[in-house]
Amino acid sequence: MTELNVFNLTAEYRSQLLGTGVTRPRMSWQLESDKNGTYQTAYRVQVNVSGEDFIAPLWDTEKVESDSSVLVQYEGPELRSSTRYYYRVKVWDNFGRESEWSEAGWWETALLDVREWKAAWITPDPQHINPQVDPAFMLRRTVHLEGGEIASARIYATALGVYELYLNGAKVGEDLLAPGWTSYNKRLQYQTYDVTKQVRAGDNAVGIMLANGWYKGRLGWENQSNHYGERRAALVQLHISYEDGSEEVIVSDANWRGLTGPVRFSEIYDGETYDARLDHPGWSEATFADEDWQPTVTLNHPFSGLRAQENVPTRITEILKPVSVILTPSGETVLDMGQNMVGRIRMQVEAPRDQIITLTHAEVLDKDGNFYIGNIRTAKQTVKYTAAGAGKESYAPHFTFQGFRYVKIEGYPGQENGLPLEAFTGEVIHSEMDRTGHFECSDEMVNQLQRNIVWGQRGNFLDVPTDCPQRDERLGWTGDTQVFAGAALFNYNASPFFSKWLRDLAADQLPDGGVPFVVPNVLSGYSSAAWGDAATIVPWAVYSAYGDKRLLSEQYSSMKAWVDYIRSQGDKEHVWDTGFHFGDWLALDAKEGSYIGATPSLMVTAAYFALSTRIVRDTAEVLGYIEDAAYYGKLANRIVQAYRNEFITPNGRVAAQTQTAQILALTFDLADPKDRPRISKELNEMIVDNDYHLTTGFVGTPYLCFALSDNGYHETAVKLLLQQTYPGWLYSVSKGATTIWEHWDGIKPDGSFWSDDMNSYNHYAYGAIGEWMYRRITGLSPESGSPGYKRIQIAPKFEGGRLSYAKAHFRSIYGVIEAGWAFRGEQVEVNVVVPPNTTADIRLPDVKLTAVRVNEDLLSEGGGILRIEQKKDAVFLEAGSGKYVFTFPRSAATYRIWTPDMHFSELVQWESARQILDQHAPGLTENLGLLRNFPLAAAAFNPMGSVISEQQYEVISAELSLISE
Questions:
Q1: Is residue 626 part of a domain?
Q2: Relative orientation angle of helices 714-722 and 701-709, to the nearest 10 degrees
Q3: Where are the alpha helices (DSSP H) in 52-139?
Q4: How far is CA 794 from CA 393, 713, 776, 941, in A?
Q5: Around Cβ 767, how many Cβ atoms within 10 Å?
Q6: What is this enzyme's EC (predicted)?
Q7: Catalytic residue among 285, 682, 742, 783
Q8: pLDDT of residue 896
Q9: What is the pLDDT of residues 717-737, one digit of tens each?
């Protein structure tokens, strides 16, 4: 039996792609091998439409000599609508082995031609039900099926608003807030549901609940509704296929009937009001009597914008239990969920009829421990439930979501005697992306920071990448999205999520190329540097992570249009000096009363102009547009030269002495190479002189640690990461944060708050640090010029000894990649996993080649090692697939520890310090990684318990002080 296997097949990134509008789906697969250094040399793909036997496949590639195993495009006969296609793969490898056929995967098409829609948009007759009423509409129809035994059934549905679909008394599917939020007037998703097991011969009933959602509800902070239309409507088409080959289609039309029901009010910002007394039990059953329901009418709404579901659906992804009940000083009863989450509370209650129970949601308690809702501004985040008095009742909101950790409960029966925790559960809701990335290190506060980054992404990746999930905003801010995209694509497979959002960006882009501040656009603002640059940065980030050339091709016109728009602004061709710009938003060096940092906006506009132009140049090269590549390459060079002329002095200093100004010059590669040492030195001095604190905002912060690590100051970057006092990433962790804050001091050291007007406690932008943690601490990156991790770079940085281990686990499209390192006594251990059909370039720092062992063997004897090279003080390796454990002696640089100086100014060499530590506390050095702050203060040893005594500490500290002097 061969030990070469093909598994984990996906089509358009999904293992089960139901209802796609893609006419040339792309297939990916992964390899499993018992040999190191395995790569694919050929593949064969078969696609079949008649089941999984593949006796007479629809399409057979035969054997193709190629190492391609991701996003391989179907090139067979034209696909048919509403059809399931099966596919399987076999491969050959460099050891001459042929795999068995994989298990079959499948995709299923939706309606590929808009003319196949036979349904009509329907809404209650306005003569009977006012279209502007708050209550959700309930629409239904009974149908009789006489076609015999049912082979399969599908419902295609969407809405002007948000909807829930029901069939024969049960909710259809697990999707929430469908059809999601798009630029509705240009693009509207519809969903496909497999209802084969829910339909039956004879009488059936289809029902749909319909609320305002993003389409008609309140959005933005100007109390404005009806952004896309004033009428809610539904579109439903049920396709039945019978075993005899016949088909039947049931559609939404004027034969449906409608009414309002128990959902009396539901808005994204404000919550939901539900009156269980007004429920219609069995309303989606065929036996329900609807004679008193009102007629419906059809709307003349276009079908041209309909798109089969592109993004992954929004669903419940986790259930949380409350951790405690709090009675606040002001006498309020509050649930603590233990985590700032996004979703809803499901409540079980047995209450008398007419009992009103109110749930109000908040992120934090104030410094006195009282319930605080000032920062949600005009959003109400309130759920009201009126009991029917029918015994045990269960309820969760249908058409809204809240951002919260704390829930104030009012009116729950018997709550004065204590709330039953088991009656409440938190249902976490977000786009159902696959988790791909995990990061961990020896510092538990950093691990909490990473958890906060992930929770921030979960809370704000709810169909669109929102800025925050709690106040009266929740908009797809382009600036927040582009700075976080890199981290987002580590944590989750966000390619379908971003692809859908980028299509909306292109749809909302102005004819002159201007890009709105938010996407989908419900505001009036357009075209700020660093915000509009999402048009180029995000598609390139997805391409880097997944090698998705099709997305680049789709977005290329939008990307070019953005750069051309910038070039057309003002009188200076290479400097964007017109219009409004957010600049280094929320930077701490801003003038009093301003949100915009001290870094001149012209520097920000010029830097991003150069970055986006280079991305367009590189995209043109990838897509084979040679003339465009040359044109934008020359333009980029001129922009960089204009930047140097304008903003860098003849002596090599950046004209603006702010942290962000130095960062942009370095990370955007704007400075002349001869000037980089001075600029990076001055950036480092700015950080050190500020007691290892930052002053950066949305523009500078994502790149700050990259600028330091990549220019010789990685230790400073790590100190910044580990900084626990304001401002720094771990300050919020020290204050109990479980998500990323909008402001570094959202909660001040004295417990008071930043201003109510803009103070989100779930605002992911500063979580961009996660990308640096993956790429520089563990060293895991896609190799430049080899997107999708076909070629992997693993270059860990662990000088300084402030962390004793770090590891990353990343599920790439090729398979699992692992990169980690740890100090084991006087040895360094670097662990690497390289998936089949990829190679890795590995850099081991501060070591000689002869000192390195791999899996306990000499490097030259390690299976899978393709190349070995010594460069100065580092060993460079090229490795094929496999698991590798590299070990080598620790260098002096990795043995450094912090001195008693509270400002971390001097470092002592390990060998001298180790002798002292071993003399006075034998074995302590083995635990050095646990003593990151040693010996800053005696308090640093509290977590260590009896590791050393107070007397030992005093002796050790004194002797180390002498060494440092």
A1: yes
A2: 140
A3: none
A4: 54, 19, 9, 34
A5: 29
A6: 3.2.1.40
A7: 742
A8: 54
A9: 999 999 999 999 999 999 999
Check: CB of residue 219 under 8 Å from CB of residue 270.
no
Same domain (yes/no): 248, 291: yes
| 7, 105 contact by CB (below 8 A) | no
Domain with 751, as residue range(s), is: 437-772
Please state the φ and ψ torsions of residue 838, each to the nearest 5 degrees. Answer: -135, 165
Percentage of the chain beyond pLDDT 70 is: 92
- 822-840 pLDDT tens trace: 999 999 999 999 999 999 9
Check: CB of residue 836 under 8 Å from CB of residue 39: yes
Beta bridge partners of 192: 156
Q: Side chain identity at 415, as an amino acid letter?
A: Q
Domain boundary among 431, 452, 472: 431
> From CA 342, how far away is CA 648, in angstroms rounded?
45
Give the HSE-up count for residue 704: Cα atoms under 13 Å, Cβ half-sphere.
34
Q: Which of 843, 878, 893 is the last residue of a domain?
A: 893
Q: Do the strands 72-73 and 26-33 form a parallel or antiparallel pair, or are they unpaired?
A: antiparallel
Provide the pLDDT confidence category of residue 960 given band limits of 50, 70 and 90. Answer: low
So what's the pLDDT on residue 918? Answer: 57
Same domain flag for 143 and 286 = yes
Continuous segment of H or E residues that includes residue 87: strand 84-93
Domain membership of residue 275 (yes or no) is no
Q: Is 939 exposed, middle or buried (0-12, 13-18, 19+ CB in 10 A)?
A: exposed
pLDDT tens column, 6-47? 999 999 999 999 999 999 999 999 999 999 999 999 999 999
**300-304, 497-501, 795-799, 909-913: range with lowest mean pLDDT:** 909-913
Q: Quick one: which H or E segment has residue 708? A: helix 701-709
Which residue's structure tokens are 């071993």?
918
| Confidence band of 957 (pLDDT split at 50, 70, 90) | low
Q: How far apart are CA 299 and CA 232, in angstroms?
A: 10
Q: What are the helix (H) ranges across 126-218?
A: 213-216
- Decide if 599 contacts 588 (C-beta within 8 A): no
Residues 905 and 762 reside in one and the same domain = no
CA dist., res. 428 & res. 422, Å (int): 17
- 808 pLDDT exceeds 90? yes
Task: Please indicate, yes or no, whether residues 529 and 590 belong to a single structural domain of this protein.
Answer: yes
The Cα 766–Cα 743 span in angstroms is 9
Structure tokens at 181: 């939020």
Distance CA 41, CA 38 (A): 9
| Residues belonging to the chain | 965
Give me the residues paired with residue 844 across strands. Answer: 875
Q: Which residue has the tokens 């640093």?
A: 940
At a CB cut-off of 8 Å and minimum separation 6, what does 296 contact? 122, 123, 124, 125, 139, 254, 255, 256, 257, 258
Spell out the SS3 assignment of 421-468.
Answer: HHHEEEEEEEECCCECEEEEECCHHHHHHHHHHHHHHHHHEECEECCC
Closest CA to 852 of 824, 887, 802, 822: 887
Phi, psi of 885 (to 5 degrees): -120, 110
Beta strand 121-124 with 162-167 is unpaired
Are 466 and 584 within one domain? Answer: yes
Residue 572 has pLDDT above 90, yes or no: no
CA distance 897 to 925: 11
Name every residue whose Cβ is closer than 8 Å to that of residue 948 and which is 6 or more positions away in sequence: 920, 921, 924, 941, 956
Alpha-carbon distance 679 to 897, whole Å? 27
If pLDDT is split at 50, 70 and 90, which confidence band does 924 have?
Answer: low
Query: Is 906 among the residues known to form the active site?
Result: no
Reference 898, options 957, 821, 822, 832; nearest CA is 957
Q: Order across the sheet with 437-441: list the strands.
A: 437-441, 805-811, 816-824, 827-834, 882-889, 853-854, 857-858
Residue type, position 562, single letter:
W
* Predicted pLDDT at 938: 34
Does 473 participate in catalysis according to the annotation? yes
